[in-house]
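Progress report, Aim 2. The chain analyzed during this reporting quarter is listed below.
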Amino acid sequence: MTHAFLDLPPLSAARFASIEDRVARLLDTRQDVVIMQGEALLPLEGAIRAAAGPGTIALNVITGPYGQTFGNWLRDCGATVHDLAVPFHTAVTAAQIRAAFTEHPEIDFVSLVHAEAATGNTNPVAEIGEAVREQGALFYLDAVASVGAEPVLPDAWGVDLCVIGAQKAMGGPAGVSAVSVSERAWARMAANPRAPRRSYLSLLDWKERWIDGGRKALLHAPAQLEMLALEACLERIETAGLETVMARHRRAALATRAGAVALGGGLEPYVHEERDAAPVATTLRVPSGVVASEVVARALATDPGLPLAAGGGALAKEMIRVNHFGPDATVDAVRASLAALGAALAELGLGVDPDGARRAVEEAWRR
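Predicted structure tokens for the chain:
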């Protein structure tokens, strides 16, 4: 089997381009799509460094840890940054975005995370996109966690830079990622003297040497196995139907939320409103006096393969994350995750109802 992988013929430029076209179809976009040869942090950082500079006035929305990272990159580029932070148990609203524009009418760049897998919330991008269009600002969106779990529509929403990765809801590889780029965004990059060039971070290199050259010659040797894995992942989604894949994620989220409430033991949905909850992951708050990371460790001791994690950083004490994305967006994964959490909470002396949780999961899944 190893020899079969090593003996693969080189990935042609034509095949690389055809995979880009499939990503464009997935996003229902007519914008240029560039597949970058690295994890999604590569285009996320590359797009900011290309489009932002000392003259940029940015609104950076923080609904989780990635928003904080984007603000740091923007400041590092010399941009003036106005952070709009909302509590991690909610989502940002278009009204809050418009209020920021009223306060700072000079804003010309908006950075937003669609779904924050780390905090379990998702933002209403269609409505926010409308507000950003009215402002005339460039719209940068991290859709890494949301793509495949909920609609991601750069053209319809007016997104100028839309970054995706395949490793979450798409159920694909982590080693390649993609970004769709509008004409406005290309123009902004071309006018930015600080935009990376002759660099692995450079989107302009791909524009000038790959897209403008008719996609005939690749910039460097592609990550062949990751590209083939991405192609297989896209094929699987096309065969099943994107709507079917998204519906499975939505079902998993609703079933996890309902099951956690029925389980008891003091567990509560971390994101208060169901409409703000991401279909890619459900976050749960543990009761006072219980440490979330200890509950997760106990649950994983019985089955290390469960899609459970504690929150990152300070959230490790209070937040449990059920990552029902990709191959784990199934009723079995949800049921097993909640059963393990119930057993862990029972060991700590908390009253739980595992049968009630199981029934709630199955009923929500059927609904």
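The longest strand covers residues 57-62. The longest helix spans residues 242-263. These observations will guide the mutagenesis work planned for the next reporting period.
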